[in-house]
Amino acid sequence: MITSVEFERLADIHGPTGGKILRPSDGKEAKNIAFIQCAGSRDENHLRHCSRICCMASLKQTHYVREKYPEDGKSTIYYIDIRAIDRFEDFYQKVQSDPSVSFIKSKVAKITEDEHGNAVCHGVNTEGYKRYMTPHDLVVLAVGMEPSVKGINIPGHIVADSSGFIEADPANGAVFGAGCASNALDVNRAVQSATAAALRAIQVVNKVAKAEA
After folding, report:
1. How many whole angstroms separate alpha carbon 19 and alpha carbon 122?
2. pLDDT tens column, 158-181
3. pTM listed for this prediction
4. Which domains, ranges and CATH numbers included, belong to the chain?
């Protein structure tokens, strides 16, 4: 098993394998790949929140498999639900129509290894409630985002939500969360969040300057 971030690096032509999708355990070409969504996310015992970007990242990565192995590449996405925001719905539908990509509505219960070194996903397909025990060359875990400020010693008392993201709370004074310090965001929304935080900081500076004048 590897994470979605590690898979991204693996598929990169400038990565450690020159863009070849090879199984780290034995170097075998991985043509039948499982993408498991919400790996540890939306889970009271780990990350309670949805990271928003994971679904789209996995959908994009199925294209890597298609490009590397146009004849016999296969991707299976195990999901709770798919979050394709705004204009990305069209891309989601495009991936859905790809015959090399399968969608299984299920939260994988466990993963074992067979005699060939393949990862075997066990669970129940909630659409029809059929049990499955499916082998794959490689399993990719779509792991969620954690707050970028987690573990950092920020001065003062900062109000954060249950996941550790900085909230827009008057008690935080002139400390504003921006980007992934404030929520799990994609690039566009992270830029918007940073711009908003900068504008709020400017408002505070102007207000203080007027008070001191």
Report:
1. 29
2. 777 777 777 777 777 777 877 777
3. 0.80
4. 2-143 (3.50.50.60), 147-213 (no CATH)
